[in-house]
Amino acid sequence: MNFKDKFSKEEKRVNTDDPAMSDTLSTYLQEWLPPSKNIVIACIGTDRSTGDSFGPLVGSMLHDHALETFHIYGTLEEPLHALNLKERLASIRKNHPNPYILAVDACLGKSSSVGSVVLGKGSLNPGSALKKDLPPVGQLHISGMVNVSGFMEHVVLQNTRLHVVMQMAAKVAAAIQLTEAKRKQVHMETKPFHTFTTSSAKFKKSIQ
């Protein structure tokens, strides 16, 4: 659970109520994610708190699909949270040397921003809304604004509506699935050309 009270030029914001939200977020992801790298998605949060379940819900929704260009960590069954974050990040970096990480986490902010999903460049600071000292995560991040900050954050998280969090998680998961399809299409369009040019080079060498 991180905290946002300002938006920068390095961020894109979409709203859950927008019917085109998943398409719009997918377009931004496609623009900002490196096309030639497999992406680690670190879905941060816990199923023990309604408000903080946004990340694990996204992770579980994506884990049910066979994704080729994304690796998913953090689900409702195996959450990525404050107590295991450092250990799990070390494991991720061991399995994926020099990973490009897209961090997904719930967020608290202004009342006017609740329901927004923010895609931002750079890392996020999980636990910052609850004053926890945890390592920053990600080269890119998605923050789901689930409730209002400023007073008794633990209680606010426990009393966040599950419907709001699930709706937001479903649309973010759909956006990532759309992005997966686009990334696979790019790979299909570039791979045959690479194979053809490689084969041509080998053919030329064989006749010399």
From TrEMBL:
GO molecular-function terms, A-Z: peptidase activity
Entries under InterPro entries matching the protein: Pept_HybD-like_dom_sf, YyaC
One Pfam family it belongs to: DUF1256
Signal peptide: none
Keywords: Hydrolase, Protease
GO BP field: proteolysis
NCBIfam families referenced in this protein's UniProt entry, alphabetically: spore_YyaC (TIGR02841)
Name by which UniProt lists this protein: Spore protease YyaC
Organism: Halobacillus litoralis
Gene (UniProt): yyaC
